[in-house]
Prior knowledge:
With 686 residues, this protein is mainly β. Helices cover 3% and strands 48% of the residues. The chain is elongated.
Amino acid sequence: MxxxxxxxxxxxxxxxxxxxxxxxxxxxxxxRFIQHSTEIIFSSNRDNDTLRFDPVIAPKSLHFNHxxxxxxYAGKKPVLRRITATPLVDEIxxxxxxxxxxxxxxxxxGIYNRYLxxxxxxxxxxxxxxxxxxxxxxxxxxxYSRNLLEQDVNIxxxxxxxxxxxxxxxxxxxxxxxxxxYLKPLQTxxxxxxxxxxxxxxxxxxxxxxxxxxxxxxxxxPTIKKHFTTVRISETPNIGNAKEFPLPSAGQVTDTxxxxxxxxxxxxxxxxxxHIPAKDTTNKYRTSRPLNYNVEYSINKMVTQIDFNYLNSxxxxxxxxxxxxxxxPGVNALFMVGVTDLMEDYRITGGVRLNFNFINNEYLIxxxxxxxxxxxxLIFHRQTIEESNNSSIIRHRIHELYYIATYPFxxxxxxxxxxxxxxxxxxxxxxxxxxxxxxDINRYWGSIKGELTYDNTRSTGLNLYxxxxxxxxxxxxxxxxxxxxxxxxxxxxxxxxxxIHRTMILALRFAASTSFGSNRxxxxxxxxxxxxxxGFDNQTPVATNQNYVFQTLxxxxxxxxxxxxxxxxxxxxxxxxxxxVFRYFFNRPxxxxxxxxxxxxxxxxxxxxxxxxxxxxxSNELFTTYIDSNPISIKVELMKEPFVEGFGGGLxxxxxxxxxxxxxxxxxxxxxxxKPVFYLSLSTDF
Length: 686
């Protein structure tokens, strides 16, 4: 729908582009490809069979009723094949019924019923070749007392779905699709209004005798009941003080944009006032103009739940090489509200994550402007993280202000830029005199980030996809209140989902990242995302010569606790086979959310994190350990395999609104299988 006109477009999912088929003032509705071919069937109120872009159409030639047409998309022929030609009958929602029949809804008797149409041909003449004339034979197969509002025919499942309105409710009914050879044409009886309409309009019907659907209509005398309509003063006959209202003929309405009023007007008794001119102030066609609307907001999202994740995945301040620890969010309560305007051009979202100790709380508010192709977003984020070591308790208060601009090249490919101001304040709690004398540490960071994102995946169910997605990003951090302090981060994440059989899929992931500069980002490898009861390995040493300022997790590496490997670079490969058990074996909808999303998973992970140029570099801290025994300090160089592996299986399902994952994994380190580790987490995908 553009500029008030409903036209037909063909969208190419792979190329991310579209092609416009029609461009005119006619209404082109319900298009679809038929019988797995390149022919498009649709209904339209057009009065000719030739496609023209932006033709000049007189308002008098536009009609309300629709006919059925077929467009040859492969041949790109501008001439349509007309299936029906019934100017006084409305025919909508055409679709395939089987290989030789089409079906559509028609109000031939005043009520929308289902009709079948079959193509026939006859030889017109023979010269050097045989020439055929094609025509359509149609007949009703339902005779309902109320309108069929919508229909859908599933040829493969041999089922038909219908929607009707009954007792102030929309009702959906399904039935078996009966083969056409077992169907007999039904005799439908016209409604009173249909007989009245045909009686008034038969004489003026411009296409009389050309209807492809045979009609047997009873003509009633024009006895007019009370009729309420909107009439212009200029169209009301000026005959004394009589209360007379013009009644338009069937196929004509008082709206001068579409059709003119009949030259003969009727009074309440059914007698005619002949040759009363009707004034029409519309002389030429004008397309509709967009109108301004008042921006009004309504709530589109409200979340209240128990959560185990951070609101925003900001890098944590580095906690120290002697006692490294990653501060996990733990159990918290999440409250989030989002509002948007009618056209979804502007969005406002606010959220708060309250930790049970009321210390590690988190707050976020964002504003998005999506009115044009370039999207803009402002986000303010505040987070508190408390860490402790042997001598101090440090509370970090992090304030971040983001500006994000996103420009889509295609519906599946975009570029995103982010500018950030970050204020970190580290406060030493006054647990003793020494900590009381420690001053607060204030750091002001400025950063820019660029991302290229591609995502053509299609969701076939929760945690089930088909297609490819990837993200390539780069970040630069600069400490504003000090010189020669910066961090550069480069990374990529590639994921591919391939169908194995029916709903079973193979999911593959490759992720890698590195940091460099005068300061660096530390990656802790191990565990899974949103781990409910995380464990941290304090035995793996952290390099003291890398000037780390931030830290984060590198997941998934199942079979180990967090920090089985660490460093300023990491690489990980994840492989999963996902089988939705009940959906795979039952070829029908499953109402139970628990059973419908129940999945069995088999997985394998391999990866490492390291310092230096490569995992086997001598500068990798993994190969060095220190033994302090006063007055002797010993440095020991080891030869260890930097890569670790993990394998196992798991179960997934949705319970009480949460997607719950349970994994049992065996880790492989130094080619030895470790004891199994059980993971309970709340997240989708890998």
